[in-house]
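Sample A.
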Amino acid sequence: MGKGDKLFNQALLLWQEEQQPENIQEKEKSIGRNPELIAKRNDHLLYRNFYYMAYGDKRWEAIRKLLSEEFYLAETTVFEIVMDNPARKREIIKENPNIQKLREMYPAMKW
C-alpha cells in the first residue's frame, strides 16, 4: 500500500466518523416527522372535517375523500385521525366555530 492509499484511507475513515451520530438518541430524534407539526395538521384536519359536516351537504365518504386530497393523505389515514381524536372532536363541536372564525384561524383555506 502506497503513501497515497494510506492517506486516502485515513481521510475516508475520518469522513465516515463525521457522518455517524454522536449517540443513538441523536439518531432517533432525527428520524420521522415533528410531532408538533403532526398535531397541528391533525387539528386543522379536524376543523376542516367539522366545517364539511356542519356547513356542507356531503356524506362522510365524500368528506373523507376531500380531506384526503386537501391534506395529501390516504383516506384511511384521514379516517384514523378523525376516529382517534374523539375528545378534540367534541371540543370543536362544543366550540361551534362559525365560518368567519374558521377563516381567521386558517386564512389560506377556502371556507
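Sample B.
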Amino acid sequence: MRNPGAAYPDYAALARRSIRATGWRASRRSNSTMSKLLEQGIDAIRELPEENQDFAGEMLLAIAGRGRITLTAEQIEKVKIGFAEADRGEFATDDEMRETWKKFGL
C-alpha cells in the first residue's frame, strides 16, 4: 500500500520537531476519554480512504511515542533541506499554503 505522506516526508519530522520545541506532552489520564476535538478528528479520519486512515494512524502513534516512521535516505535528505530552509526563515506564503491545502481537498 502506498504511503500518501511519502511525497511529503518532512511532515512527520516537522511534527516531532514542533512537539519537542513546544515541550508538549500527552497527558496521562487514568480514564479512556478523548477530548472533543480529538473525537471530531477521529470521526473525520474514519471517512477517508483506508490508505489515508493508515497514514493518520501512523502519525498519531508517532505523536504518542508508540510508532515508528522509517524514512529512506532520499527522504532524510529532503527533511534536512526543509530544516535548513526553516532555519533560514524560508516558509511558504499564505497563498502557497492555500494552494497546497486545495490540492488535498482541504
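B remarks: Residues 2 and 100 are 20 Å apart (CA to CA). Helices lie at 10-22, 36-46, 50-63, 73-87, 94-103.
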